[in-house]
Description:
Shape: flat
Protein name: Squamous cell carcinoma antigen recognized by T-cells 3 isoform X3
Largest sheet: 4 strands, antiparallel
Pfam families: Lsm_interact (PF05391), RRM_1 (PF00076), Suf (PF05843)
Low-confidence stretches: 513-546, 628-682, 694-700
Structural class: mainly alpha
Organism: Rhodamnia argentea
Strand order of the largest sheet: 2-3-1-6
Domain RRM: 548-625
Subcellular location: Nucleus
Strand content: under 5%
Amino acid sequence: MVGTDGYAVIEKLYDRGVSDYLSVPLWYDYIKFVQENDPSVCECSPVGVSKARNLFERALTAAGLHVTEGKKIWEAYREFEQAIYQTIDASDDATKDKQVQRIRNIFHRQLSIPLVDMESTLGAYKAWEAEQGTSQDVESCDVGKSFPHVATAYEKALDMYNARVNFEQQISRQDLSDTERLQQYMIYLKFEHSVGDPARIQVLYERAITDFPISSDLWLDYTRYMDKTLKAGDVVKDVHSRATKNCPWLGELWARYLLCLERGHSSESEICSVFEKSLHCTFSTFEEYLDLFLARVDGLRRRISFAGGLEVSSDYQHIRETFQRASDYLAPHLKNTDGLVRLYAYWARLESKLAKDIVSARGVWESLLKISGSMLEAWQSYIAMEIELGHIREARSIYKRCYSKRFPGPGSEEVCNSWLRFEREYGTLEDFDHALQKVMPRLEELQLFTLQQESRTADQKDINIRKNDREKRKSGADITDEESPAKRRKDALQITKKSYMKDKGQVQNAAELRKSGDKKTKIGDGMDQEEIKGSASDTKSKAYTDQCTAFISNLDLKANNHHIREFFSDVSGVGEIRILRDKFTGKSRGLAYVDFIDDAHLAAAVAKNKLMLLGKKLSIARSDPRKGRKESMGHSDHAESVSRSTSRGSTASQKSNYSTSKERVEQVQLTGKNTFARPRSLKPLGWDANKPRTNEAEDEKPKSNDEFRQLFLKK
Length: 715
């Protein structure tokens, strides 16, 4: 039991807490605190009982519709009333009957609301009715017969609860992030909006606000709904007040708060206090401050208009002071913006219409022209006001001031054409001729300037295109692009020479292997043709089977050796990885060769075909260099593969192979009609088959292998 002073302080804290956020446990603690510490409630005095009942009703209004936790408040309320029933004198039947009816009404109210565990509540109600003598036992108590309206309400509430069970489960999930949970609240709210029960919608908004107190979107949605549904009242004002406390950085909430106070006919001092608080907040944009100033001016204007005019000159002075504060604060930040023009246009219109002071209205526009004189909209709005008031001479003088100014874009031409249109509609023929004389040179000057700008733009565009092309060529070129032309020609000749020597070696190797195709041919050291076949077969096997390689296509262009090695980590046995790249840009072509230590690991790697790497499905196959070769080139392919396998050795090995090849040429007996050094199908220039053969013709006849060998040995 706390002291009197302490009780008042704690009670005030509880009251503030339950007013700011919806919390059933806090309401429950608040009620228990009052029941245990308030002397009048503890003594069950009429004042104390009335206070407790008012507190219970407040709690039910705020949290009684809470689907999952509202049951606690209802049960506490019933227990309190049943405790009072026990204190009533047994002889006071009227008071007892009245108390019984109060408890029955609480049961009926609870059974008509969709709450969790409604079946147990119905069972408790039947047991209580059995105690009152309504029925012999719980099973025989038929609520439908005794209280048909209660049974109907219970069935309806049960259907409503079943329709909301899934939504309640979604917002209670612990595995959801804050964003996902807020989204589930919004889905739940959309469902409640479709049902259309304002009390239930408000309770669900309060539940969402309790879980997400600084969600600006949620507060905006909540205040918008309250303004649309209730519009005015302490409840709506309380919602707006809490919205600005939780999200003070949102100017739109403050502007709505001012409108709410105006709808509720709040005092001028209260509205002014809220407006001053809003100006001390920090907003993300200056346009939000502008909206606040305009909302405040709107309220002042409506207040003066409803009062029936300007009875006192000081009434309009509040509007003028508000405009001046807005100009002083916003002009440096909103210079040359539509927002500032809108502010000054509103100000000038009120000066001319409401205050009937045209001089002050013109002074407002002149102040704006000093700040944003380069804005065409400012001049046009000034001219429009003068035309609306019928001041044609003043409008013409403004045109004369601004037609020669340079405005951004087509604004300069627009103001000239506007002046001509104005003189056609409002001026005399002399006025139109005078305007035409002023405007035409200006239009010609503007057209010339436009053509020059377009020409410069086109030239700059061409320069940019050429610059981009140079950068692309530079980025795609090799390092050799920086070398001198002579150096590049020399390198090209060396590359051509190396290619020629390689082709020549392949031709010689192919000739040796064709020579070994004759079974009767003998080698100088005694080796026959079958041994040559075996040797070539061994070499071929070494070239193709010793190296187990997989070919990968459809690689992601960002994939590197590390990605591929990790992809085959479960296979293991990975050797060298070769990613094919573009020779100019150096970028990956999406192809790669991967060597494995043996055929088993290669087979396991091929089994991973069609699996994903970096979001792309790979195509993996066994690499076969012989695939795609023509069958007629079989012998040549064999020689070429041997040449390739041989060329992988060191420089010393190449020299050794060259000397060995030379010895074989000297030892091999060349036979047959095959010739090389030129194709047999080609004839020398001037060849005539019918012409008698001379010595020159004999010299031009293709030589056989024996003749060519004799020439070679002579040399």
